[in-house]
């Protein structure tokens, strides 16, 4: 009998049979191991909360299935141990990316592939392809080894515009490997929105993936990025701002962006995370037109303005596995973009750099798309 492992979380739910894929496979007695990424099997864990013990899932009664967390306190846990791979005939990947390099599920897939290549293992890899909720738009620059970490694989731009299957073929090429990747297309009910099940706790709706490439940068600041509210990444603020300061920033940014997005001043109280229970003054980003809306450039411009009125804007200390650098350095991942935030270079220079790097990535993405389609037709 074939021995399978499954890398998934709560999005791996079939609305026709109304069952999770891990339940279907376990009942068929083919599922040997279940790999769980950051945020847990049901997206029950907030960002950077580690899952060392998986006995919380014993009540699921997945008899004979070993549950392995790929996000523990030990950095080595980010990649499966060789003992968790050598006895497998196939690995099934059913995970929802949101189109951005900071979203760690992409890193988890890469580390899985890297382990297979390192140990010269070649199980079949079945990739259940899902639409990218951020679409095909590309934003940003490829991150260099200097800033690479678990929240930014070397070479990926901020917003990659790829599907999960395309990412897998890109990783295969990056590793110079011949992994046995098999793509299963259009297996989901197309009437179900791709983010109808939250892929992680703070991706609550269809808007979040469209603004995430830019607004996630606020994790690198001392401001609340809206965690602890019902609109994470849309709502930003701090108890340290005055209403006049925020209103001034909103007015200035809105002059250039009002056809695409508008910042609305407000006050809010986070129920957890930064500034729990405190009244914050800030803004909500309202996306008016997502056609050619450049979230990264918009958010960089907002943060640059806020940095001029708040001296201690940058979050200090180590932030994530794989690097000793600060959060803003890892998230931005580019010296020129960082210099723009710090007010050292002009908007025009950044726009020209973004245009060039995005054009190069689109060429690569389109070539990988052809590789994926060739694999599907063979």
TrEMBL record:
Please list the residue ranges annotated as the Peptidoglycan beta-N-acetylmuramidase NamZ N-terminal domain.
Answer: 5-205
Where does the record place the Peptidoglycan beta-N-acetylmuramidase NamZ C-terminal domain? 210-370
Superkingdom: Bacteria
Provide any one GO MF term from the record.
Answer: peptidoglycan beta-N-acetylmuramidase activity
List the PANTHER family hit by this protein, alphabetically.
HYPOTHETICAL 460 KDA PROTEIN IN FEUA-SIGW INTERGENIC REGION [PRECURSOR], PEPTIDOGLYCAN BETA-N-ACETYLMURAMIDASE NAMZ
Q: What is this protein called?
A: DUF1343 domain-containing protein
Provenance organism = Emticicia aquatilis
Supply the source organism's classification.
Bacteria, Pseudomonadati, Bacteroidota, Cytophagia, Cytophagales
């Amino acid at each position: 009998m074939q021995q399978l492992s499954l890398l998934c979380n709560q999005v791996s739910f079939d609305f026709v049979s109304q069952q999770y894929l891990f339940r279907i496979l376990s009942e068929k007695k083919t599922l040997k191991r279940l790999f769980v990424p950051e945020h847990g099997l049901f997206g029950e864990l907030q960002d950077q909360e580690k899952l060392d013990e998986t006995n919380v899932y014993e009540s699921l009664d997945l008899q004979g299935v070993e549950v392995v967390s790929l996000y523990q306190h030990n950095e080595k846990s980010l990649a499966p141990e060789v003992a968790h791979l050598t006895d497998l005939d196939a690995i099934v990947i059913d995970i929802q990316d949101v189109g951005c390099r900071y979203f760690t599920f992409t890193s988890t897939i890469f580390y899985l592939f890297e382990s297979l290549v390192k140990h010269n293992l070649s199980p079949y890899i079945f990739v259940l392809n899902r639409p990218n909720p951020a679409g095909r738009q590309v934003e940003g620059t490829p991150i260099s080894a200097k800033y690479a970490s678990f929240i930014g694989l070397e070479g990926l731009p901020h917003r990659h515009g790829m599907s999960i299957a395309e990412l897998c073929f890109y990783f295969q090429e990056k590793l110079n490997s011949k992994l046995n990747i098999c793509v299963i297309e259009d297996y989901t009910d197309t009437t179900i929105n791709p983010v109808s099940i939250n892929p992680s706790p703070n991706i609550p709706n269809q808007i979040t993936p469209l603004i995430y490439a830019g607004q996630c940068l606020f994790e690198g600041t001392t401001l609340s990025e809206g965690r602890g509210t019902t609109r994470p990444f849309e709502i930003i603020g701090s108890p340290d701002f005055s209403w006049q300061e925020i209103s001034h920033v909103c007015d200035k940014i809105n002059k250039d962006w009002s056809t695409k997005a508008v910042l609305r001043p407000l006050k809010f109280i986070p129920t957890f995370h930064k500034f729990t229970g405190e009244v914050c003054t800030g803004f909500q980003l309202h996306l008016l037109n997502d056609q050619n809306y450049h979230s990264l450039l918009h958010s960089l411009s907002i943060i640059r303005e806020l940095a001029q009125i708040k001296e201690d804007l940058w979050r200090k200390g180590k932030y994530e596995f794989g690097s000793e650098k600060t959060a803003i350095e890892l998230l931005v991942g580019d010296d020129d973009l960082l210099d723009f935030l710090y007010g050292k270079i002009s908007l025009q220079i950044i726009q020209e750099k973004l245009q060039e790097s995005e054009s190069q990535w689109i060429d690569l993405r389109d070539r990988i798309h052809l590789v994926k389609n060739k694999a599907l037709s063979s």
